[in-house]
Design a protein that fits this description.
By secondary structure, the chain is mainly beta. It contains one helix and 14 strands; from the N terminus they run αββββββββββββββ.
Length: 209
């Protein structure tokens, strides 16, 4: 495990140094018919369950962990879990615009060759956003732009992303919040840079709490 990963997980273990009067804790859990990430299925098209915890300081600093079941394999080793750790800082310019900058480590127990890390930064303004994730060491860079707008009882969103040396993706979605639950309906389209046989598209449904 390299130094950046140690930084994330050491931070998670040192939460006792915070005053809990200044830190809020939240959790989340979701079930999806297909775990699609940047236009690519991570679980072979099968359903996936995920969940995580976040700690956020009043100043805007945050850190958290998130996990999901995936179908990971490098041809020799196989694994069924993705475990991510992240930390960052978010703030706002005004009521309609803000920013977020941080570090995330994607880890796949039993399939170490899949592990990678990114530094990310995003800006949002009046429903639109731009995001850039810089891959650390040999990891590829990723950029994304998107827009969301209130529509009826929910929110309509659309985005486009480009993953260096991999492919580009479009995502159209509609999220509808009912009490503490959010229902999400999505359509994605992925175009591989060099291998048309890896192109993919389809729809999936997510319910989160």
């Amino acid at each position: 495990m390299n130094i950046l990963k140690k930084l994330v997980f050491t931070s998670l273990l040192s939460l006792s140094s915070f005053s809990f009067s200044e830190v809020s804790l939240s959790g989340n859990v979701a079930l999806t018919t297909d775990y699609v990430w940047r236009g690519m299925t991570q679980n072979g098209g099968d359903p996936s369950i995920s969940g995580g915890f976040d700690l956020e300081d009043d100043s805007g600093f945050y850190l958290g962990v998130w996990a999901a079941n995936v179908a990971a394999s490098d041809g020799t080793d196989t694994g069924s879990i993705e475990l991510d750790g992240y930390l960052g800082y978010s703030g706002s310019f005004n009521d309609d615009s803000g920013y977020d900058v941080g570090f995330i480590a994607y880890t796949y127990p039993a399939v170490d060759s899949w592990d990678f890390e990114e530094l990310y930064i995003s800006f949002d303004f009046y429903g639109a956003y731009v995001m850039f994730a810089s891959g650390i060491d040999a990891a590829n860079n990723y950029g994304e732009i998107g827009y969301s707008v209130d529509a009826g009882p929910g929110t309509f969103s659309i985005s486009y992303g480009d993953y260096e040396n991999t492919g580009s993706n479009y995502l159209i979605g509609y999220d509808w919040t009912v009490g503490d639950f959010t229902l999400g309906f999505y359509y994605y389209d992925f175009d591989h840079d060099t291998t048309p046989a890896s192109d993919d598209d389809g729809g999936y449904f997510t319910i989160s709490y």
